[in-house]
Records
---
Amino acid sequence: MSTGTGASDLLHADDHGIDQIVAGEAPVAARSPLALFWRRFRKDKVALVALTFIVLLVLVAILAPVIRNLVGAPPPGQTSTDALDDFGLPQGPTSEHLFGVDSIGRDIFARVLDGARVSLLVAFIGTGLSVTIGVTLGMIAGFFRGWVDTLIARVIDILLAFPVLLLGLGLASACSTKDGCLGGALEPGLTIVIFIIVLSNWPYVARIIRGQVLSLREKEFVEASRSLGAGNMRIIFREILPNLVAPIIVYASLFIPANILLEAALSFLGVGVTGQASWGQMLSEATGKIDTAWWYMFFPGMALLLTVLAFNLVGDGMQDALNPKGNKQK
Amino acid sequence: MAAYIARRLLWVVFLLFTITCITFVIFSVLPSGDPAVARAGRSPSPQLVEVIRVQLGLDKSKPEQFINYIGDILPFVGGNGIYLGFSYQNNTDVLPEILERLPVTIFLATGAVILWLSIGIPLGVLSAVKTGSALDRIAMGIALLFISAPVYFFGLVALYLFDDQIGIWPILPGNSAYGEADSLLGKAEALIMPWCVLAAAFAAIYARFLRGNLIDTLQEDYIRTARAKGLSERRVIFRHGVRAAITPIVTLLGLDIGILLGGAILTETVFNIPGIGRYAFNAITVSDLPVIQGTVLFGAFFIVMMSLIVDILYAFIDPRVRY
């Protein structure tokens, strides 16, 4: 029951539910915050379509090598002069190369598939790490308060005031020289991109979680649990954390598209992902060739656009589901 | 108020100092490559590398190098004004190169700001007032599309469609046109496409942001009071609603201007506009670290200063701010 009470506080139980209780009808079974959240999200058809798209995209990314074999496309890194025409110019979409080839004869379909893996990997790992760090530090700060809170809150303030992305771009470019950073310990590529993502995201998560925990820890259900003899760990994990699941999912869903764009931008500038196909890097290579090979910019660009759009739609839907009093109201 | 401003100033000094420390670490401590070798050019003799090492002060310890670096940056220390280093590639000082490109970036940013405010704000207000209408849905749908598309992809599509050299409908000056234009009008013409592309994304963000704010504001009690007093709907919305809902836009705008002045790197790269962002991009492609370092520091300075200005401005325009 305890989580149920917290849930209605957090999620503003819909008026219908309150009416029923007030009218003294049979009590409705307590729904977890997550179940309530899902019930509202389900009503948003556009967001559902977008969510389906994302699920398919994840499957495509995981099964990329299988799909490539199915359509008979060559590996993403394989160059082939056969695919260029007599003048050495790349060919457009054909049955052999669904999305055409680039200027050194690599199959763009295979590379777009490969790019999906990179984009999703970076976005999911980066967002996952940011959320984990942010939630942990935010909960520690909000729950234990005192000097730990002061310290964490100060670090958050400083990082939020910082041009983190600009310095991140500096770091990525300083380390993308051929010798790398720290004697090669910090290499250009995925690690640095994820590092920049985490550094720029976690303070936002921590700030929000800290605020939520500060208010949750004073709630009656926490007091009730404590009077039943629960220790700090039990209260944190069994009482407070379940109430944070919905906001955590929403913020994660807002960070993922931003992080996909950040990875693409760094790769576009040539300081992001190396050694693997990435949508941003493909767009960068396509920049000088839009007049001769439109497909070269079109397919990676559309892949990027649709992916980010789908994540944004899902994020919007989730935000509305979390906060039903929000912008959807007439 | 004076105490508040003083506190913000101290905070800015602290931030700028920390940023300087971090850029020093990023560019002078972390990279494994030898700057003296990078400076010396192709297959240099060991003697030359040694001479350059002494010249650049790289023979000194890192703390000494750091003190020299701070002395270079601060205007009245070290006797060389503000010095942001020396490009490996072009044999030129970084700061004059940046300042030379600043007007281009300012021109690009100003036009884009005017454009996105004049689209984003009316659209946000209209959408908020007519929530749920066809106009609202279409506008917000398009806005989400613009937010989701990276500016460089839109830039490429715009060039593909409208570039007067290669476009399908060759109606606008496109890639590299800015550098080739010799009159102010020609330069402005060359910026039409970049302005639109840059403004599209920002207009979308501002419209969504203002819409959300205004919808919340219009549900406040004082709005009901204003209606109850019998004020016209127009007056309620503009005098009471928009006026309150628009203040957070000031923060957003200040920070965005700060970021853009530091170099609209993606837009300038796609359209080959010779501003600070393009300068930084060129430096990245040839690993010219002092130039990247200089532009990063310059951009960070703009961002921090704009956030200071915004904070102070905000305290003036929003009476609810505590200071």
---
Amino acid sequence: MANIAAKRIKREFKEVMKSEEVAGGAIKLELVNDSWTELQGEIAGPSDTPYEGGTFVLEIKVPETYPFNPPKIRFVTKIWHPNVSSVTGAICLDILKDQWAAALTLRTVLLSLQALLSAAEPNDPQDAVVAKQYKENPQLFHMTARHWTNVYAGGPASIVEFNQKVQRLLDMGVDEHDARVALSTYDWELERATEQLFS
Amino acid sequence: MKVTIKSWTGVATWRWIANDDNCGICRMPFDSCCPDCKLPGDECPLVWGACSHCFHIHCIVKWLHSQPQQQCPMCRQDWKFNNK
């Protein structure tokens, strides 16, 4: 790894460890390998959002050209959010793309991702299905996001009816995650989800 | 008493006067050099932009070369070297 990238990541790592956000449990950062090219981040779901109470794990890959190019970050924890792919965890956030600046750090990026959970940008979506639901049926979006937070991110127990519908599909032999995606996509209408799964 | 000085050695220190302690690009202290240099000072000077932000010259040049738009990595204003 280029000299500047490794040195900077080492300094940033120390900086994050000393930060008040780590002390307060809002963010977390861990090394994945000894070469400083891959790290694992964690952000706490912000309060007053459907992500509250959840812990979201992020995969952080540091390119050879860092800090002249942004780190590559995706959600490992599955999440229902307009700017995050519900399939791959890919993130649509300008500072991770063309608005990256060398003055940004892992700490500020993690905080920006946490802010993204509080303020979605449905007009610049990564996941069109989620964004559509966010705009057309905000209440259902909120409940779905809360359900995903509960199941995948360890958030508080949520909507019993959703769990029952997932169970119905499980009983039919459908994979649990596939069932959840189909139901979430079709606004929790069991018939339409079933139809899509078996078509 | 009369003292005769036979020889003397002057000692001086120096430091950059910058608006920050660390370079925002490599995050090394300004009193140290960029990660590609060995010694701070004339070999690894600081430069200021018209926006008042300051970087190791090697760092800002690399940043500008890596970007389609020539903007300060701190404030995103168009980057101009301050030739004061």
---
Amino acid sequence: MYTLKEPASPDPLTVESMPSIETLNGIATQVRRDIIRMTNQAGCGHPGGSLGCADLLTALYFHVMDHNTDFNMDGINEDIFILSNGHVSPLFYSILARAGYFEIAELATFRKLNSRLQGHPATEEGLPGVRIASGSLGQGMSVAVGAALAKRLNGDDHLVYSLHGDGELQEGQNWEAMLFAAHHKVDNLVATIDLNGKQIDGNTDDVLSLGDVSAKWHAFGWKVLEADGNNMEEVLHTLDQAKAACGHGRPVVILMQTTMGKGVDFMEDDHHWHGVAPNDEQTAIALDQLPETLGDF
Amino acid sequence: MLESISYTEKKDTRSGFGAGLLELGRQNPEVVGLTADLAGSLKMNGFAGEFPDRFLQCGVAEANMMGVAAGLTIGGKIPFTGTFANFSTGRVYDQIRQSIAYSNKNVKICASHHGLTLGEDGATHQILEDLGLMRMLPNMTVICPCDYNQTKAATLAIAQHQGPVYLRFGRPKWPVFTDPDQPFEIGKAQLLNEGSDVTLFAIGHLVWKAVEAARVLAEKGYAAEVINIHTIKPLDTKTVLQSARKTGCVVTAEEHQLHGGLGDCIAHVLAANQPTPMEIVAVKDTFGESGTPEELLTKYGLDTPDIVQAALKVMARKNT
């Protein structure tokens, strides 16, 4: 079972290097710019969910996770992240590049022939930071649970974080994994669900309603937290709560309300932007709303 | 050589897997066992009892089991999943394809009750398509040993191999005729009998049937070469071609559909390199049914006389 680490003694260097909310929001804005530019340049891809989850991944990779950009597949003695809804690959790639896993310039190769930045994330090309292929939905929860069990067996007290779409919860394998994780008391796992209420064919409620998601997770025996996934302060606070909830015999899930297309007004809350790239004109309008903060790739 | 092939007992190949897994557990602390409510059937209880912390009961939820296994490799574990062949392949094909094969994870998919010889449970459980399904996946190694001793040896060997493996074995008690201390080399075909008139390539339970067929053929004056293709992928093409060149005609025998299995593999190699008269002994594009293993092998044309007939037919063709 996961054991809570002793609180670290206050280290002025650490405190000083802790990014401010403003800094994190600035990173998230640049990541959103990357998403728009990558999908525009590729002429395809999935900007909607990518934009909606930018705040969470920024918080994880730039503040919360203890991770090593000198990539090692086994990820022993570091926190690791498992992406399940692989179609948000532009977000994942931007975050990994901006965090230092590979050169930012490589983002320009997204979805191109011979690129390591496949349409959906893969390990085959050896892209640092990717530990499992995803794209066919509903598989990442099981993988994250397995990775968490490996940490337990290794006596590694770091955590596994994962991200899943809400439409993705329609895949039955998730519910197998939820049963299993609770049964085996996998309490070093923090799963996050992108509850944007949208999927490729429309509103989740219209396509196949998930009903009371919170009640379902509670009933499966998980610790359930909820957050506004597009409010950095709230995301950080909830991730802190999630960490504190680990080590108590239950897996933890954060149900994260987000807005598909967050940050670009004409994309927000519109399921048509699930899997369509902006054209040049739309890209110009979008980028006007997302000021460059770290320098474009 | 043929005279020296004999057996004193019959044991199920799944028990060879169970014995191998227990031994592995003692040798290698990274080995983890998983099952989907079939620990008893897969003979995994020895491992589970001795290494409870490294044994994961997954319940009747095979898709999750495959994903958990993939996740365990992230952290250096060597997971061995255990369920029936049907639920190890077709039921979880996309999980294996994406999370294990494409992700090139070091998962050992161990599958019992393959083919017709699981017997009375009938066609729902008698998967005859698994070799084809699994050998189509890039990165996947596919193994089906011939008896208890070889299954145990193969179980030990695949832990040393880095990458996904499908290990297929069965339910019925079957002649144990290979060496208990044999080294198992993945991808290296096993020559059981040298011959010059026809080559019998067989896999799994039908290797013993091929040995029996060679004896019948010997009585008729024909020298049959018998080769155990325990690894269908990667296929030992060198041995296949050498033997086919020597004998000039071949028969393949497998507990699998005509499409996608050993016959297809050998035909592909021969057609591309040295077209050779060939007969395939396999299930002819039908599902199975309930019955005893022996009854089923007879009814579906996979028994010793079927291999003999195929050999006589292909030798006649060679000589015309």
---
Amino acid sequence: MEQIGQDEHRWIMVIDLDRCTGCQACVVACHAENNVPIVGDEEVRNGRAMHWLHIERIWIGEYPNVRAKFMPLMCQQCQKAPCEPVCPVFATYHNAVENVNAQIYNRCIGTRYCANNCPYIARTFNWFDPEFPEPLNEQLNPDVSVRRRGIMEKCTFCIQRIRRGRENAAAEDRELRDGDVQPACAQSCPAGAIKFGDLNNPESEVSRLVHSPRGIRLLEELGTEPSVIYLSGGEAHVG
Amino acid sequence: MSVKAISVVWPETEDPREKLLFDPRPTREMNNMVLDAMTTTSWRYWLVIAVLVVLVLIGIFGAWGYQILQGMGVAGIRRPVYWGVYITNFVFWIGISHSGTFVSAILRVFKAEFRRPFTRAAELMTSFALVVAGMYPLIHLGRTWRFYWMVPYPNQRQLWPNFHSPLEWDMLAIFTYLIGSTLYLYLPLIPDLAMARDYSTGWRGNLYRIMALGWRGTEAEWHHLKTAITIFAFAIIPVMFSVHTIVAWDFGMTMTVGWHSSIFGPYFVVGAIFSGVSAVVTVLLILRKAMRLDYFLRAEHFDALGKIILVFSAAWTYFFFADYLTEWYGGEAVGKELLTLQARGPVAPLWYLMLIFNVAIPLLTLWNKRIRTSVRGMLLITLGINVGMYIERYIIVTGALSRNRLPFNWGAYNPTLIEILISIGSLSTFVLLYALASRVLPLIPVWEVQEGQLSHRLRRIGRQLAPSVSELD
């Protein structure tokens, strides 16, 4: 197997479902950071909500003893991503530097094949040209391109922040420290459920968390090798 | 042409002169029949053309133009059903395009004599169905205006297309098939174009003079033409198999439950031939009525094509059953959910309709010669088969996408008016192209019929007239 990552970092995300309160702060932060358009009520009802990150509510137990559990879902940043080989124009591809599953918006011609082959249905499509009504247009992030109609997009692990973190560290002539890079969702999570970091750094928080016996990866049996690890089941004994 | 061997076919109970090849007419008369059919246009013809033009304008220019300007959102596709009617239509028209190659090339390779009068009509369907099928990958693209990024050419982006993608294989296969089948249509057309040239004046004369490439009918020309046709007939068959196999691989190569299946390649090929041959029969019946081609298209031809459809109905049923049983017996949760969706869900009426049209009706009726040779019966059966095959593709494309491994990601799909208008527009494009071509190109390969009639003779043996066939070299 050839070496894909030239970067010494291996970015992963650990999400503690036992901590997640379903407050949706991460969803809002993701929209703001990545210029994800707001499509409006009608299109949301039509099944066309554009969230790179959305929260699934899962009911556990039988009525009346039910309990809601929340699961933030986004692109799982597969190391063997099914979306990559099917794109005819290399719009979705494996980024050799950051070792993440990247999407080049301006290459995308909109075959939507990647979305069909994603077992997590993590991708969103620009069904129409995006609209950023006043005053949303004032807060567009200049680091992320705005996508026009007909283009596929998805969570990038806030690759612009990974790059900025590395550039800042290089400017200060030091190694990248744990916590230097925070995607918008992790930064905004009030419960501290979303952790992001470098698996290759043995000192990082995520390196410690991946050894948790509560860790699972979504649809791991498919062999896609997701980079998102969920921690769940801590309260199983309590019922 | 040298006579190699003579075999005597003992007469059946019916009069052998009911068969086209034992019922020769003078060359001039036969040529005129084809030329008259080509040059006669009634007011009904122009009315049909006018209606078709309107439908094409509405569907292709209007609805598709609107979709390009507004975005794919005007179609009904939505998460997680990212492919809908457009891909269904694509697979359907690729299937129709298999008619020509199968009916013409395979029957030619096997020297099936009954093919002679209708190879051209079938080959023409292949080319036009491919044109319509080829529109759909463009219609379905989010950014249609960037379609050429899939074409491998040196460009300023310094980027080749991704040859790992089945869509890229698809594009290459369709282009190969379109070029190959158009050449294969053109080669046997040359002697007929020359015949038309000799009888025509005016714009037709000029057109045929250019298209006939100076054909004079010398022995050497015939020799080259026959060699070329034989090469193309053999070469186009594997291309035909590859095209629909690759279309099936668009689905089979994915991880999607209900698509990821090794049987999809052959299953789609069989389905394509099934629907393609049925469409040939539908078109031949319409042509025979509209262009008064009763002399050329006879009961024996529909009888033979009916038998082919019967065999392919059985083959399709077998593949369908093999696919279904594997999914059902394996009992994987998502696969089972898909089967439940088909048997009891919202698509259930369509699913049962598909089984009726593709399995029940053909298998119960086509064994009967009276039905195979009846115009109305065959028209209804073959139209039904194409409705059934369309439903099959629709259920495969949209059904499998609506159910996936994570139940909170399930969804539904309903086509919108825009999608329906574009579908009607593309069907109209096909019929329009065919209707226009039917008045420009000789639809009956006269020279092939005449050649067949030369090799078929009624010989007097004792007191009996025995039909005999000499094998042409």
